Amino acid sequence: MSETRKVFITVKTYPTLSKSYDELVCTAGILDDGSWIRVYPLPFRKLDYENRYQKYQWMELPIERNLADPRPESFKVTDLSKVKLIGTPIGTEQGWLARKEIIFAKNKAYTNLEALIKLANDNHLSLATFKPTRLLDFVVEETERKWGAEHLETLKQKANQLSLFQTEDEVRKEFAVVDKLPYKFSYRFCDDTGKESTLMIEDWEIGALYWNCLQRSGSEEAAIEQVKQKYWDTFLKNDLHLFLGTTRQFHAWAKNPFVIIGVFYPPLDQQQALF
User: What is the distance between the alpha carbons of residues 75 and 198, in angstroms, rounded to a whole number?
Assistant: First the structure.
C-alpha cells in the first residue's frame, strides 16, 4: 500500500539505461524513521524541473515496497506528480554536523567488509555506510564509450510511440540520452582485517565531475587527473566514508555484491587530525 514518507537524499548514481524504465538514477537515502531506503526506479530527468532533487535534501514521496526487487530497502514511487522537495539542501556547517546526525542517528559505519557482505548474502541489508581502514589506490579503467544498441533501440521505439502526442523537438528533448562515461573509477582499500578490495564508484557526482573537467580542459587525460585530484588527494585529507549498495543482479549470492554508490567526506575534526 502506498504511503507518503520523507526521505533525506544521500545518493544519486550516474544514470543507466534500462529496457523497462528508460533512463534511471538509483536514489537512496535515510527515511524519516532513520532507516535506509532505495527508491528505484526514479527517472530523474523526467521529473518536473523544480523537483529535480539534490543530495542532502529532504523530499516527500508517495512510496510502496518494490515487490519486483528482493532487496529489503527497495521502494518505488507510486505517483511522480506528488514528489515534493522540502526546503533547501542541508549545509556543511559545523563540520557537516546536521548531515551526520541524520545519517548516523540509527546507522553504524561498518569497518569489516566480510561482515557486511554476509549481511547482504543473508538479505538483511543492501545499503550501508562503510569506513575503509586504509585507501590504497584510485583506479581508472577505460570502458565502452557508447550505450548498447539494444537499449537505444528500445528508447527510440518508446519515443516514436509518444510522437503522436508531442512535437519532434519535444520528443528529442524528452529522450535525450545522457552521455555514457568512457571510464570506470574505483577505490582500492583495506578493511579493519587488512583484506583488500576494489569497488567501482557509481556516484552521480563523479560522472558530473568528469564531464565538467573535460569541458573545461578539452583533454581526457587532464579531466581524469582532476577527478583523481579530488577523489584521492582531497578526500584522503577528509573523514571519508563510502555509501555502499548491492546491485540487484548480484544481491544475496555474489562473493561481493557491493558497489560504491556515494561518498561522504566531512572534514576531519581536530581530535581525529591528531591521529
Answer: 28
